[in-house]
């Protein structure tokens, strides 16, 4: 007998050790997420993937799937809160999509569209965080950082470099660079690093490639992130056997 | 004579590293020692420590920048932190701070030009029954008055070394105002532990036929631990740190773990503003607390315990180490405790100013020398805690209760309190009352009874359980404090009729904004948005739409936040809107929406560039002024 739980009333099979999010994606059911990455594991910080089980909220990226559970996910209430979470992220930083190199390739932007976000709703905070343009091939715009720490994890796990960390706390927490000067130029980063690819926004990018693909022809310009993610995940599942 | 050269960073770090065995997991303890030595952790020290401890530089910097009492910039020879809880404010702390700054010739938050002194506000220092309070070079000062502030300023200006300051400035009171069945007859050292070990029964001669002597002793130990755990179950004891989880279940999970390496952690990071019971317990009943931890070690099969104490109580270090030393001498700690096979010892760790570290998983990270960010919910600390080993984390008061339960039995304990909340509870009463302090009551006592006993006859409201708890008005005074009704960590801040409760709400909103760890979206941004909305009301720009907005944000924080901090950080807003609507209504001068954006303020730069000061260079005020 296979293990299964119910996601919004529909059965989702799972393997022992899978989280709700992993099992859902494998079963072709999209749950919005930003800080989670299949190769980097859960972080539990963006909160977009929050689901409700027996009246209690859990982040589905960290919650192990359990047999027979009834998981509420795409309810109007939770979707509304997910949209509000996106709006919070937008007002916390400076996300000017029309002038951003990442537009169309940006998970933050694509997820916002996918959740039907049409305005930022909350008062903008207009942060003035330090930008790091010191490196010849990579730049860091902290005003676009959502503190998902995907770069922190990718640098440690895949690049073996520990280039990034987080400093401060609360709204004053910022992405920090591991180098004597605190600048990218003195760090071990290279433009091909996984940490750069892992960034879901335009915060961390390779220089001079921002407009190689014209706006309008980029990944999420063509189809919604929810559709694309599922196809990508299905392909990977097949690939991994 | 040539003046001695200032010691180099290396010379300063060496003895500290030696003391902590150069262990990277003790990074936080090492940083605290450096901060106390130099009144800062300079970048050179950070770089040296990163190298010596083989920790990435960015991570050492990350730890320094996380804790409020660590700083890369020099804080002055005298670093003064004034407690900024609402109870301090109600006793005039803000005016006193201004007075002190005036006498010292220093601006708040700045170091005086000669590097002598700095004055800052800090979150509640746990002296609410004897405020206004503060810390000077991490020593607590209490009952601050204008006169005391002047004396402090004189001592600083005359550069008198701290050890020569009059002791009365540092006097901390701990007397209990009311004691009930537990603290009326506190335990003698060893009483609970002896009972726990005796539950193993006689080491029967018949065992010797089957078991080697050392195994017989282990069997005896196992049996005693199991029996004590039964007593904990019978007592119905629930965690006193706020969440109220059944202690027996928690201990059983660790006892049943397959990994033999287990830990007992005691949470003395008493950061909830208005709470000070753990300070009193650690001062006057430290033996009971350590005994409870040792009994837990017996029951769950752990050999090592750690007491994690907030920096605000670090002045107790010598006293606590003294109690531990005495217990070791008396055979109550160490190897073969009371001649049994029980080995257990306790070490002390300190925090460095972070409310979030009261959250058990954040506390574990902090003990491991890292930023105090709460971990993912799974796996739980009982399976995967300190050093990824099965770990019991309990509050100071829970361990004290466990010691009593071991000594007097679970049934005896459960005779007190209510069905779901057995035993007694310590209450921390502060604010507008004649007799602030610690009160012991059986669970189920009504708010009204406590108010009567502490002499709060004119109360309009009480913040029960601290800012993360429940704000009630007089209509709720007959409610009971229990897990069934009004659950509480034991804190009651009382507000008399003449108080404007808006000041309390504003204080809490700023507190949560300051203490949010920044991990999750809803708490990091939500606490800031809420604090900004409260400021909007403070300025008179609030409108009914903003109240709805705040409640909406609060709901998102409650549902979506990662840990208890974010989940409770908006309750003071929703409670105050429901229970004290007038404090909000009185700050709305219109029912129309007024944008928080100050258009006229935004033109200030343009005015200064063009040198305009005339009335025509200003826009009309957006709020319709009353006639």
Secondary-structure blueprint of this entry?
The complex is a heterodimer of chains A (241) and B (627).
Chain A: E1 3-7, E2 10-14, H1 20-26, E3 50-53, E4 56-59, E5 70-72, H2 76-92, H3 107-114, E6 131-132, E7 138-141, H4 150-157, E8 164-167, E9 174-177, H5 194-198, E10 204-206, H6 219-222, H7 225-240
Parallel strand pairs in A: 1-5
Antiparallel strand pairs in A: 1-2, 3-4, 3-5, 6-7, 7-10, 8-9
Chain B: H1 9-19, H2 27-38, H3 43-53, H4 57-66, E1 78-83, H5 86-90, H6 93-104, E2 117-122, E3 134-136, E4 139-141, H7 146-157, E5 176-178, H8 191-198, H9 207-210, H10 213-235, H11 247-255, E6 263-268, H12 277-284, H13 286-300, E7 304-309, H14 317-329, E8 345-350, H15 360-367, E9 391-395, H16 396-408, H17 410-414, E10 424-431, E11 437-442, H18 447-454, E12 459-464, E13 470-473, E14 491-496, H19 501-515, H20 521-538, H21 544-560, H22 564-568, H23 571-579, H24 581-585, H25 599-602, H26 604-610
Parallel strand pairs in B: 1-2, 5-11, 6-7, 6-9, 7-8, 10-14
Antiparallel strand pairs in B: 1-3, 3-4, 10-11, 12-13, 12-14
Helix pairs in contact in B: 1-2, 3-4, 6-7, 8-13, 8-16, 10-11, 10-13, 12-13, 13-16, 19-20, 20-21, 21-23
Report on this model:
The complex is a heterodimer of chains A (241) and B (627). With 241 residues, chain A is of the alpha+beta class. Chain A is 27% helix and 16% strand. In chain A, strands 2-1-5-3-4 form a five-stranded mixed sheet, covered by helices on one side. Chain B has 627 residues and is of the alpha/beta class. Chain B has five domains: 9-66, no CATH class; 78-172, 3-Layer(aba) Sandwich (Glutaredoxin), CATH 3.40.30; 187-414, 3-Layer(aba) Sandwich (Rossmann fold); 425-499, Ubiquitin-like (UB roll), CATH 3.10.20.600; 502-585, NADH-ubiquinone oxidoreductase 51kDa subunit, iron-sulphur binding domain (de novo design (two linked rop proteins)), CATH 1.20.1440.230. Chain B is 43% helix and 12% strand. In chain B, the strands form three sheets. Chain B has a six-stranded mixed sheet with strand order 5-11-10-14-12-13. A four-stranded mixed sheet of chain B has the order 2-1-3-4, with helices on one face. In chain B, helix 1 packs across helix 2. Chain B starts with 8 loop residues before the first helix and ends in a 17-residue tail after the last helix. The mean pLDDT of chain B is 94.
